[in-house]
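--- STAGE predict ---
source: upstream dedup step, 1 unique chain passed
mode: sequence only
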Amino acid sequence: MKILVVGQGGREHTLVWKLAQSQRVEKIYCTPGNAGIAQIAESIPMPDQFTDLADWAASENIALTVVGPEAPLAEGIVDVFRERGLKAFGPDKRAARLEASKDFAKQLMLKNGIPTAEHQTFTDAEAAMAYIEDRNAPVFVKANGLAAGKGVIPGRTFKEALEAVTTILVNRTFGDAGDSVVIEEELIGEEASFTVLTDGTHCLPFVSSQDHKMSHDGDTGKNTGGMGAYSPAPVITPELHNYVMKRVVYPTVNGMAAIGSPFKGVLYVGLMITDTGPKVLEFNCRFGDPEAQVLLPRLKSDLVPLLMACIDGTLAQYADVEWHDEAAACVVMASGGYPDPYETGEVITGLEDADAIEGVTVFHAGTKQDGANIVTAGGRVLGVTAIAGGLHAAIQRAYQGVSTIHFDKAHARNDIGYRALEKLQK
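--- STAGE serialize ---
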């Protein structure tokens, strides 16, 4: 079968890498792709219209289209493909509101008794600021729409919170994504990522993972799309896993079906594990990035039939998915300055040396081919991923890979996995 992957980041490189291992797959295309993806799939330009891409897919007899990023899902790419009679993996436009609108997600959680932070939504900056003043407590200010993982700003002081409202609602830093803001209480605890596949009825959980959102060591700096991840996450105990499936995952999927928006695809639950139990920070309607880089290498089973089952409504047949026992760790190498403005076009060296290390795979994110060189072309440039017998060894291998790769002003956190290592040492 022929497969088309939509996207150009580290998540999409990982998807292409995993799909290419399937004996069912004859050829993979990717649009628009990146320099790493081009080594294992044929890159094609991304058309301006989804209808043009669907027409191309039909003409090439594409059996499965896998949509990686949230933006095309929110814009309705799956709807367009389904109208053509094509199989596309991911939620349709109505279901993708779970990620595209934080207010929609909050309302769904409240209606279905899903634990989350207290919140209010505002379109008026003065009203938002008055609410913050009345609360007189730390908050998080979130752009309601999609902001590439950067639309969440901590307001731990009154001044920070007011500045966040100004950034989003007044200065329009995130464009239309900031037409409204969701202001919610700050939750204290440890974050974790919970990922499931669903066909709208049945849910298949993946192994646990955790990412690092903040740009610098010790979870300081600015919010990013993710600076690294690891799996498994010791914070997700078997008891916590069962609780999340029962109190969060199934109520979400059933709640979406109840309002006539069945959710099919990847449901990613961002959790805060508080002293009073887990609470939902956010939903994503696709694989996390860089969580995909540690989850998919641990998946022993063929990914293709799982994705097809989500589309066809037959996921219940795949209860016995197999996983590798090894742990996985991913360290993101970013352009200097990210998530603030950064330069691109820097030559990357040492990629072959990193890939030669046992258990290490380098997934490209913001890269492109420039003549004989691979150069930087984005904020998050590479995800250096390693698997090993234990989490400590996987992290060490990933950083060994990082040490061999060089480009001007490269930035990586030095403490990926520190929370897990602290737990494992106790």
